[in-house]
Amino acid sequence: MMTREDILNKADDIVSELHGFVELKAKSAERADLVERGLLDKLLTLGAALMQAYFEFAGDGDVGPTWEQDGEVRRRLDDFRRRSYHSIFGVCEVERCVYSVGERQKTHAPLDAKLGLPEGEHSYVLEDFLERFCVKNAFGDSVQSLKDLFGRCVSKRTAERLNQEFGQQIAAIREQTEAQPLEEPEAEILVASVDGKGVPMCGTVEQKRGLPETPNQKHRRKKRQQKAEHQSKHRLPPGHGKTHKQMAWISAVYSIDTFQRTADEVLDELNGQRTKQHPRPVNKRLRAQLTDYVEGQRVNGQDKIFDDVASQIRDRDPASQKQVVCLMDGQRSLWDRQANFLPGAIRILDIFHVSEKLWDAAYCFHSKCSQAADAFVEHYLRLLLEGKVETVLRSLRAKLRGLKSTKRKKLKAVIRYYDNNQQTMQYDEYLASGYPIGSGVIEGGCRHLVKDRMERTGMRWQIDGAQAMLNTRTAYLNEEWDDMIETRIQREQVRLYALST
């Protein structure tokens, strides 16, 4: 075992080597990037030596023949026990005294509590760095990146386990702690948006939990089986892959200043001719929730995400002084839950989904990518922005005559969509009040949160791993990462050492 002096001498040797390395490379005019890489390797070696010195200087944790902890008197064992500490610099070995009630009982080390060592072998810093890679890249790529940059080898299975543990801890932190202070002062109105995004899964949550399939799943399975009887056994049609997807429900809550516009200005913006600077969203917070089972009870992801949205709104506006706007697409189940959880919110149907339906109607009469189709959409969109929904409906119904069955069916679907959502399409009033009418924030959130990380080629998720990744991704995208890491460490320290004396 190396003495303190040996360790310090080794560190001094590395520092002297660094001086000589820099001087030698400067004289030979070595390319700067090669010098930088060489310095990184040597600095990591120096960091490992200094970390080992830190543990040696901290001592062995000997507090005498006995150690009273948690109301029990533990006796010091004769042999030292060694544990490994995998730091970002390298592996350190920590030898310390251990105490136990009996020879075959669990041992406890005062030094672990004194230095706040983690429960596992990996340091909190190493776990932090690894999770920052994992939250953006595939687990295998993240493990390789850690090895390439720092020379630290961690298994892919370990990376997956750590991510799942961290994701579960993030959920617990959010449920059990008070709302965190906001980075910026709130803007004039609060906006809440909810949307769904499919996550490729390894089967259903019921299969994972060993539970019977739901009636809806049973109905869909039978329909798939009926279609499969007539399909090719070797080649599936486009869009009919074998991947099972489970819907992740994504919410975005933010505040924004009012911004009055006219119908003409909105049309110009949609055509890429923006003349005014839009206010930016403030204090945006993303959340995501999958449907799962807790103690055998099915917890609907939509219910849970709307409950979380309502809780965020209360925390951010406890006196209910701000106007709340709920901006979503036309999915009926979302609006039903909005009525339950956010009954006082202004309801706005996303204008982008409205315009997409107009394109469906336009192609019933005009060829795709034609100027006639462009003019059709612009004409009817202007009417909708002016609040003339009934005028649009009458006009489209009149156009049903003479259409062939397929196009007639498509146009009827557009009419039904507008008819069912009239109460959320009062765009003339929304624009005059300065409310946002486009759901770009939640659409971008779905893309960044799910698609950019969880829908890559060949990816399939288990329910626990998928929810954990959604939790870690939202913490990262919300810029809550550092706070979550620190809270997680503090909680583990309390759990491990709070009663130590």
- Give the spatial strand order of the biggest sheet: 8-7-6-11-12
How many H/I helices?
19
Estimate the mean pLDDT confidence.
90
The biggest beta sheet reads: 5 strands, mixed
Give the uncertain stretches in residue-range form.
Answer: none
Helix/strand class: alpha+beta
Which overall shape is indicated by the principal axes computed on the Cα atoms?
elongated
How many extended strands? 12
Taking all Cα atoms into account, the compactness measure Rg is 30 Å
The span between the termini is 29 Å
Q: Estimate the helix proportion, in percent.
A: 40-55%
Query: Which range does the strand content fall in?
Result: 5-15%
Structure description:
The chain is of the alpha+beta class and 501 residues long. Helices cover 52% and strands 15% of the residues. Strands 8-7-6-11-12 form a five-stranded mixed beta sheet, with helices on both faces. Helix 1 runs antiparallel to helix 2 (32-57) and helix 5 packs across helix 6 (156-176). The protein is elongated.
Brief summary:
The chain is α+β, with helices and mostly antiparallel strands and 501 residues long. The chain has helices at residues 4-27, 32-57, 110-115, 124-134, 139-150, 156-176, 205-209, 215-228, 263-270, 301-316, 332-341, 351-362, 371-385, 389-398, 405-420, 427-433, 440-454, 463-477, 481-497; strands at residues 66-69, 72-76, 81-86, 91-96, 99-100, 189-201, 244-256, 282-290, 292-294, 297-299, 324-328, 346-349.
